[in-house]
Amino acid sequence: MPFLSFSTARKIFAGLGGLYVATVVLLTIPYFQTHTLFLHAVKLPFFANFDVPELYGLAPNKTINLRIETADNESLGAWFVLSDSFYHSLPTIPSQPSDLLATALNARPTILFFHGNAATRALGARIQHYTGYSSRLAANVLVIDYRGFADSTGTPTQPGLARDARAAWNWLIKNGASADQILIMGHSLGTGVSSLLAAELSDEGISPRGLVLLSPFSSITKLLETYSIFGVVPLIKPLAMVPWVAKMVLSMLVHTFETDTLVPRIKGPVLIAHAGKPFLGFSLLDLISMAENDWEIPYSHSQALFDAFLDPLLPTAPQLPANAAAFTQEEWSLFMDRVAKRKDLREGIVTTVELRNFGTVHEFTESGRKVTFVHTRAGGHDYLGIQEGLHDIIGRNFGFFGH
Ligand SMILES: *[C@@H]1O[C@H](CO)[C@@H](O)[C@H](O)[C@H]1NC(C)=O
Ligand SMILES: *[C@@H]1O[C@H](CO)[C@@H](O)[C@H](O)[C@H]1NC(C)=O
């Protein structure tokens, strides 16, 4: 008697297939899409007391719990974390830290941090980010919970999150920060939000200190094309067998966060960081290198963004004609020439430095601004931003160390 009879196996597969179809259909409904993308209903840690940041590991009165009002009257919960160098310069624990805001904002640069989807600003992994930035970079940190998250009002949408980001920026300026003291930083979903803010500010001729994108996606559409549920069940790939179905499902996306199309609008220095080895699809190699992978967003998204920043400096990429077989010998060699020329030019523009055991840093400078791609070996998706090696590159690139 076999362990699993044929008809049982068939039923299981039919069941899984049905579940898959149901999942895809649910995701075309905006309500479910919103909840799946933002996961804002997952309010981890549960019943957090945002008034007492000390409960989550931050030093007494180093963090101010505050509310920020948006242009469309949502009220956002936020934390302002004092830089350690400022906090330690005080003779005692401050009894009214909110009175020190303006002084703190002028004493040290501030990281305006936009977290990823799900959970709240009190999540342990996020606290480790504020601790790293306020100590190793001696930066102040402002972190908001978007509308619909944590103790903030409202429901998340893409334009809504962009307004939240702008409200946080305006709050810093209103409290005495200057634009060049503010480094905009996003993680995961927050990279889409950060890029929207950076593009909007650039359009207005406002120059923040820079933009940092941790574990970004190039766009939600492109992410979904490669996304696998639990890193195993591909979401869109099976649909691609019927291209119009895949196209239709992707066209029903409500919140697209197309960072790649924002790239030409974003001025000023940019640092992109991503952990992990190349994502090769579901293979034995991936299993072996598991510990080094970003399992949620493959690093090819960061490469694509870096390339998008680099693209204007290179001649247009030669295109293969639809019918490559019709290419004459001459046309082929012309094509190959242009490919080689583009590659040479790229290598002349981009410097690549291998930091042994840590990762690789690709960098180019264009009309005075640096664009950097740090490809780390470790950190995964959620702990990339606490890598000391990454803090140091951020510190040097954005002038946090005073030289
Ligand atoms: C926000 O609230 C203010 C004052 O209560 C009101 O004047 C304004 O019209 C509101 N704006 C929006 C977009 O609801
Ligand atoms: C922390 O600040 C609060 C007011 O914001 C104050 O009542 C309290 O005494 C301060 N704690 C310490 C240890 O100074």
Briefly characterize the structure.
Pfam families: Abhydrolase_1 (PF00561). It comes from Mycena sanguinolenta. The chain is an alpha/beta fold.
Explain how this protein is built:
The chain has 403 residues and is an alpha/beta fold. The protein has a single domain (17-317, 362-397), classed as 3-Layer(aba) Sandwich (Rossmann fold), CATH 3.40.50.1820. It contains 14 helices and 12 strands. The chain has helices at 6-27, 30-38, 84-89, 101-107, 124-135, 158-174, 189-203, 220-226, 243-251, 259-262, 284-288, 300-310, 329-349, 388-397; strands at residues 63-69, 75-81, 110-114, 140-144, 182-187, 210-214, 228-229, 233-234, 270-275, 351-355, 359-366, 369-376. The strands form 2 sheets. It has a 10-stranded mixed β-sheet, sandwiched between helices. Strands 7-8 form a two-stranded antiparallel sheet. Strand 1 (63-69) and strand 2 form a beta hairpin. The longest helix has 22 residues, at 6-27. The protein is globular, with a radius of gyration of 23 Å. The N and C termini lie far apart (74 Å). The chain binds 2-acetamido-2-deoxy-beta-D-glucopyranose (2 copies). One 2-acetamido-2-deoxy-beta-D-glucopyranose (NAG) is lined by residues 72-73. One of its GO terms (molecular function) is phosphatidylcholine lysophospholipase activity. This is Abhydrolase domain-containing 12. The chain crosses the membrane at residues 12-32. It holds the Pfam family Abhydrolase_1. Keywords: Hydrolase, Membrane, Transmembrane, Transmembrane helix.
- Beta-strand fraction estimate: 15-25%
Integer count of domains: 1
Spatial order of strands in the largest sheet: 1-2-4-3-5-6-9-12-11-10
CATH fold-level assignment: Rossmann fold
Structural class by secondary-structure content: alpha/beta
CA radius of gyration is 23 Å
Average residue-wise pLDDT: 89
Q: Count all strands and give the number.
A: 12
- Going by CATH, the homologous superfamily would be Alpha/Beta hydrolase fold, catalytic domain
Please report the distance between the alpha carbons of the first and last residues: 74 Å
The biggest beta sheet is recorded as: 10 strands, mixed
Helical residues, percent: 25-40%
Transmembrane segments: 12-32
Domain AB hydrolase-1: 109-216
Keywords: Hydrolase, Membrane, Transmembrane, Transmembrane helix
Pfam family, one: Abhydrolase_1
